[in-house]
Automatic annotation (TrEMBL):
<keyword id="KW-0378">Hydrolase</keyword>
<dbReference type="GO" id="GO:0102127">
    <property type="term" value="F:8-oxoguanine deaminase activity"/>
</dbReference>
<dbReference type="Pfam" id="PF01979">
    <property type="entry name" value="Amidohydro_1"/>
</dbReference>
<dbReference type="InterPro" id="IPR032466">
    <property type="entry name" value="Metal_Hydrolase"/>
</dbReference>
<feature type="domain" description="Amidohydrolase-related">
    <location>
        <begin position="57"/>
        <end position="409"/>
    </location>
</feature>
<dbReference type="GO" id="GO:0019239">
    <property type="term" value="F:deaminase activity"/>
</dbReference>
<dbReference type="GO" id="GO:0046872">
    <property type="term" value="F:metal ion binding"/>
</dbReference>
<comment type="similarity">
    <text>Belongs to the metallo-dependent hydrolases superfamily. ATZ/TRZ family.</text>
</comment>
<dbReference type="InterPro" id="IPR050287">
    <property type="entry name" value="MTA/SAH_deaminase"/>
</dbReference>
<dbReference type="InterPro" id="IPR011059">
    <property type="entry name" value="Metal-dep_hydrolase_composite"/>
</dbReference>
<keyword id="KW-0479">Metal-binding</keyword>
<keyword id="KW-0862">Zinc</keyword>
<protein>
    <submittedName>
        <fullName>8-oxoguanine deaminase</fullName>
        <ecNumber>3.5.4.32</ecNumber>
    </submittedName>
</protein>
<dbReference type="InterPro" id="IPR006680">
    <property type="entry name" value="Amidohydro-rel"/>
</dbReference>
Length: 473
């Protein structure tokens, strides 16, 4: 029985039911699970490990609901810098398919390291290109090595260009092989128990890279095995045109026809939806992963997060692909969500009949996304989207997943009147400590579970090989 005592945080943000913020707060955990949270004086006086967080703000670990860690190999690719999603994918597909298992390992480590340094403790990775000897096992081994809580999809693409899909034929897989590997990966790795550190989801990639048959078969298999379902949806106007032309339906109606609207499903992006479709998500219990940086980077659009929240749709945050962001910083992503929601206020018609209302009108005060609401999206919101009730808050029974920021960092200078809000309003700083299941992944601002400089160096040799394939010397 290993115990951990964290104490003296200047402010501890619980995200519990009462949204308590505790001055001088701390927590006591046993075997990676929180037993007590409260003022430090109320906690046990000793433990196997004691972490004093005087001068820090302590927050629940952030939950990343949509990512593609392998894309860390292809960040800022010249051919993909100034193009929208379909052309961006076209510039990348063959490079991703050409990665090796060793490259995938280093990309996973680098991406997760950067995420951990931003306070992220749980990451879902939407892996979907499995060629050249790569398998989801490569990433699972890497995630275990660095120590983040990991959920990964045995994703898939099966609809190549010759069949009317977007990806080149050499980047897609046979559907029987996909489904067999899905079964293998679920049986070998999926942990459904509370406190699980590794879970599997099924995630055929998108309506334009997967056949309807594979979408249906994936849903049936996921439900038979009790794992969650995920895909990209309604990301761009191009996708909407595609499903209308090919299937005669808008993306959400197409997914409904395939049996994909359920409370075991979450969609990445969900930018281009109407009021009826938002109601469908709410009615079915579908979750949404908002990826603001990627949506800006690719000029995809602005997801109606305020409308989702008002309707009661579950919303979490995702960094999305390292090559459409091009970072792995979830705290920055929470900041982007806050800022983009505010920009959206100026772009859309105000609520109510008076179309002359400006953003300065007090009747619109409820539309402003606060820093705390953005933090909620990144913690509890993400947990709900991933179907977890044991992460996203610091409260008894929850996993001891947390991070701390130093308040004497230059990024907080002048923002100490409200350090919780300053964590987003000011430039998001680097986590001083990030703990997953009661164990440190980041300590004193450095990743402690892997030799990061060596991994980055190896990663960059793999990345250079892929860049050369793209014609970049
Ligand atoms: Zn994505």
């Amino acid at each position: 029985m290993a115990t951990l005592l964290v104490r003296n945080a200047t402010v501890l943000v619980t995200m519990d039911g009462a949204r308590r913020e505790i001055s001088g707060g701390g927590l006591f955990a046993r075997d990676g699970v929180i037993v007590e949270v409260g003022p430090s004086a109320s906690l046990p006086e000793s433990a196997d490990e004691v972490l004093d967080l005087s001068g820090h703000v302590l927050l629940p670990g952030l939950v990343n609901c949509h990512h593609h860690l392998d894309q860390t190999l292809t960040r800022a690719l010249p051919a993909a810098q100034n193009v929208n999603l379909f052309r961006w994918l076209g510039a990348h597909y063959r490079l991703w398919a050409a990665r090796t298992p060793e490259a995938s390992r280093t990309a996973t480590l680098v991406g997760l390291a950067e995420l951990a340094l931003s306070g992220c403790t749980t990451c879902f990775d939407h892996a979907y290109v499995f060629r050249n000897g790569c398998a989801v096992d490569d990433q699972i081994a890497a995630a275990r090595e660095i120590g983040l809580r990991f959920m990964v999809s045995r994703g898939s693409m099966s609809l190549g260009q010759s069949q009317g899909g977007l990806p080149p034929d050499e980047c897609v897989e046979d559907e029987d092989a996909i489904l067999a590997d899905c079964e293998r990966v679920i049986a070998r790795y999926h942990d459904a128990a509370p406190g699980a550190r590794l879970q599997i989801a099924l995630a055929p990639c998108s309506p334009f890279s997967v056949t309807p048959e594979l979408m249906r078969a994936s849903a049936a298999l996921a439900r038979e095995k009790g794992v969650r379902l995920h895909t990209h949806l309604a990301e761009t106007v191009d996708e909407e045109r595609y499903t209308l032309a090919r299937f005669g339906k808008r993306p959400v109606a197409y997914m409904e026809e395939l049996g994909w609207l359920g409370d075991d499903v979450w969609f990445a992006h969900a930018v281009h939806v109407n009021a009826h479709e938002i109601g469908c998500f709410r009615g079915a219990g579908v979750g949404v992963c908002h990826c603001p940086s990627s949506n800006m980077r690719l000029a995809s659009g602005i997801a109606p997060v305020r409308a989702y929240r008002a309707a009661g749709v579950k919303v979490g945050l995702g960094v999305d692909g390292s090559a459409s962001n091009d970072g792995n910083n979830l705290l920055t992503e929470a900041r982007q969500a806050m800022l983009l929601a505010r920009l959206q206020m100026s772009l859309r018609p105000p609520e109510g009949p008076d179309t002359t209302l400006s953003t300065s009108d007090p009747s619109r005060d409820h539309e402003w996304m606060s820093a705390r609401e953005a933090l909620e999206l990144a913690t509890l919101g993400g947990a709900s989207v991933l179907g977890r009730t044991d992460i996203g808050a610091l409260a008894p029974g929850y996993c001891a997943d947390f991070f701390a920021l130093r308040l004497d960092d230059v990024s907080f200078a002048g923002g100490l009147a409200d350090p919780v809000a300053a964590a987003l309003f000011c430039t998001p700083g680097r986590a001083a400590f990030t703990y997953v299941h009661g164990r440190p992944v980041v300590a004193h601002g450095e990743v402690v579970t892997i030799e990061l400089p060596a991994v980055v160096a190896e990663h960059n040799t793999h990345a250079a090989r892929l860049a050369a394939l793209s014609g970049v010397a």
